[in-house]
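re: that complex we talked abt at group meeting.

here r the seqs, copy pasted straight from the sheet so there may be weird spacing, ignore it
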Amino acid sequence: EAGVAQSPRYKIIEKRQSVAFWCNPISGHATLYWYQQILGQGPKLLIQFQNNGVVDDSQLPKDRFSAERLKGVDSTLKIQPAKLEDSAVYLCASSRFLRTDSPLHFGNGTRLTVT
Amino acid sequence: RKEVEQDPGPFNVPEGATVAFNCTYSNSASQSFFWYRQDCRKEPKLLMSVYSSGNEDGRFTAQLNRASQYISLLIRDSKLSDSATYLCVPRGGGLELVFGQGTRLTINP
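got the structure back, here u go
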């Protein structure tokens, strides 16, 4: 089974620029998550999709972050404009079901550096 | 109180030792629990799922205490390759997943 695919692996941008990340979940996984992980901390949920609908985006800074999963498969996360504090690893994860017993499977992340 | 609290460590133990660390959670509606391990500069990988009172997988044992709202992870006969950060993740009735900050473990030769 192919894992969660993310690209790019690394991105360096200047503050106030825009950046986009892409994620393709495991085939058949209905639920997709975007997490932000700052060095030394656990992952923090930004947004959760069930198919192409948003389940939870309460922690997404909507003034600068946006995400979509238009066809219910792959997803993009965008930051516009970026701030220095957005430097982090952005992890995409998927799970087969939106159920309490369904674990998450992570992609290898995109490491963003904002200068 | 934080939703999920873990002792950040670092825990430094010799190879072959037994080590245990706890994770406390505040959401009493949490139904499932997951332990993930995360190697330096890598993504979290699922280590173990806990749906009832505990789970055992080889050298790893997780025990859940719902009354006191904590879950522990025990590693026996530790190997150098066990060096990683261990993340505790309760999953609540609202299906939210909140990660702890992780416990950093280093196994020394």
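couple things i noticed - Chain B touches chain A at residues 4, 31-32, 34, 41-46, 49, 51, 87, 89, 91-93, 95-102 (CB under 8 Å). The mean pLDDT of chain B is 91.
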